[in-house]
Amino acid sequence: MKIKKICCIGAGYVGGPTMSVIASQCPEIQVTVVDLSKERIDLWNHSDLDKLPVYEPGLKELVAKTRGKNLFFSTEIDTAIDEAEMIFISVNTPTKTYGKGKGQAADLKNIELCARNIAKVAKTNKIVVEKSTLPVRTAQAIKSILDNTGNGVDFEILSNPEFLAEGTAVDDLLNADRVLIGGAETPKGQAAKDALSSIYENWLPKDRILQTNVWSSELSKLVANAFLAQRVSSINSISALCEKTDANVAEVSRAIGYDSRIGSKFLNSSVGFGGSCFQKDILNLVYIAQSYGLQEVADYWEQVIIMNDYQKRRFAENIVTTLYNTVSGKKIVFYGWAFKKDTNDTRESAAIYVADALLDEKAEIVVYDPKVPEAQVYADLDYLGTRSPEENRRLLKVVNDPMEASKKAHAIAILTEWDEFKAYDWKSIYENMLKPAFIFDGRRLLEKEIMEAIGFDYYKIGQS
Ligand SMILES: NC(=O)c1ccc[n+]([C@@H]2O[C@H](COP(=O)([O-])OP(=O)(O)OC[C@H]3O[C@@H](n4cnc5c(N)ncnc54)[C@H](O)[C@@H]3O)[C@@H](O)[C@H]2O)c1
Prior knowledge:
Layout: E1 5-9, H1 15-25, E2 30-34, H2 38-44, H3 59-66, E3 71-74, H4 77-83, E4 86-89, H5 109-121, E5 126-130, H6 138-149, E6 155-159, H7 169-174, E7 179-183, H8 187-200, E8 209-213, H9 214-245, H10 249-257, H11 278-291, H12 295-322, E9 331-335, H13 350-360, E10 364-368, H14 374-384, H15 389-395, E11 396-398, H16 402-405, E12 411-414, H17 419-422, H18 426-432, E13 438-441, H19 448-454, E14 457-460
Parallel strand pairs: 1-2, 1-4, 2-3, 4-5, 5-6, 7-8, 9-10, 9-12, 10-11, 12-13, 13-14
Helix pairs in contact: 1-3, 5-6, 9-11, 9-12, 11-12, 12-13
The structure holds nicotinamide-adenine-dinucleotide.
C-alpha cells in the first residue's frame, strides 16, 4: 500500500519536527498536522519563521521548504482524518494528576479522544500509528475503541515510538539510529508495517528499520528512556562522591566511558535531567511494574527518579550553604531555564526546582535564557503552586540582558548548557558582581582554572 496522505494529530515537539522531516523527504506525500490549539497552529503558520512554537536547529529551514507545498498545519482535524490513509497520534501523554495512578501512570485522556475522533470520522480503512509514548498494551485499548464505535471500517494499529532528542531533533530524525515499528503479526499487520517502513526508507537504510510485535515496540520506548535516564542518575550519584573524595567526575566518566562495554554517551554529570519524557516515562514504567505485582522491578527504576531529585536538591542546598547559610534578599542570577540547550522547552527543567527551593529561602532570582520567554518561566513556577503568582513575580525577574543581570549579583547559577554562556566576558561579569563572587556551575560548562584566575569562587558539580 502506497501512502499519499498523512494526518498527524498533535503539533508539538514531536509532531511538528517529525512531520516536517517526513514532508521534506517524501515530496509525493501530503502531510497535514492538526491540533486542538488554534494558537499553536497559528504559530506554525506564522510568516515569521522565528515565531514557530518549537525551536530546534534546522527546523525553520525545513518548514520554509515544505509549508504550503506538501506540509500543512490546520485545526480542521476531522477533514485531515477523513482524507488520510495513515494517521499518526502524537499528542501529549503526561503523568496523571488525579485519580488512580495519580503521580505515576500516563494520562491517556488525549489518546482516547483521538481514537474516538478517528472512529467517528473515518469512512475508509486507516492505519493508525501511535507516535506518542504509551504504556505497553495501549494499542489494545485504541483498537477496542476504534472497532466498537467506528463505521465498520478496518483499522490497523502500529506502534512507532519517537526517539528524537530535543535540541537535535532534526538531525536525529534525518539520521535515526533506528526506527521501531510494532504491529500485529497478521498479513494485514505486516502490510501496514511495510507501508510505514517504506516512508522511512525514503531516507534511511532498510536495516535501521526494526519491525517487532506491537507490545515490544510500546515497551521498548519506555525502556530506552529508562536506560538513558539511569545512566544520568548513575553518574550523578558518583558526582556527589567525587565532591567528597577529590576525585573528578569528568575524569571518572572518561575512564569508564573508554570501556567499550560501557561507552561514553550520557555520562555527563549535571544538576539533573529534565524534559517532558524521562521522569514521566520512568514513573509510568514503575506504575506498570507495580500493577503486575513486580514491586522489586518498580523499586529498582524508581530509584532513578529519587537520585535525580536528590541531585537538584543537593545543588540548591549547596548554594544556600556556600552563601553563608542564607540567601534571603540575595541576588542569584540563573543563566538558563530550558531543560537543555538548543530547545525552548522547559518541561521538568532542573531550573524550576532549584528556583523553587531558593525562593523558599527568600532569594531574589534573576533569570536569563536565550530562548525561553518570561511568561513561560512564570507559568512553570506558578504550576508548582508553592507560592502565589504575585510572590513569584515579586521574588523572581526575567531579563533579556545577561550582562546587566550580573550587576550587584551575589552568585550566578548555570542551569542550562547554552554555548553562548561559554563565550561571555566573564571578567566583566566578575567586575559587575558583589564580592566574593560565586558561580555554581550545574552543567560543568566553564573552566575552573580560568574562573578562579579571574577571582570567582567557582563550584563545579562533581569536583571538590
Ligand atoms: N518531546 C520529546 O522530546 C518527545 C520525544 C519522544 C517522544 N515523545 C512523546 O511524544 C508525545 C508528544 O510529545 P510532545 O513533546 O510533542 O507534546 P506537546 O505537548 O509538545 O504536543 C502535544 C500536542 O497535542 C495536542 N493535543 C492534545 N490532545 C489533542 C487532541 N485530542 N486532538 C488534537 N490535538 C491534541 C496539544 O494541543 C499539543 O499541541 C508524548 O507522548 C511524548 O511522551 C516526546
